[in-house]
Amino acid sequence: MIDTWHTLISSQKVVGISELLSENVMLHSPVAYRPIQGKHKVMMYLTASFYTFINDSFKYVREVRNGNTAFLEFEVVIDGTFVNGIDVIEWNEEGKITDFKVMVRPLRGVQTIHDKMNMMLESTI
Q1: Which among 29, 45, 64, 81 has most CB atoms closer than 10 A?
Q2: Where are the domains of the chain?
């Protein structure tokens, strides 16, 4: 599952991510106070995240896998702001993502991401 995730990210195409999500997937986003649940809502946030995070500077710099959980540390520059973060991805026996947590730093990076994602989400709602 994680190898497929890496392929989708490196291709810089959001198409295909939906097939990796379970119906009851839960997303813990740094820009949302509460977890987002359900494939449709999570896909909206992941699409906004994809267009916010994925550019030529995005790269995973460290990865730890343990059973059905992966910790993927990333670095990216967004609008001139360096962002360092971790994706924690859990999946079920069918290879579908059940839980996705994104943690980012520094604060300026969180603010940049928040502003960009809010603009994208507001335009889709």
Answers
A1: 29
A2: 2-124
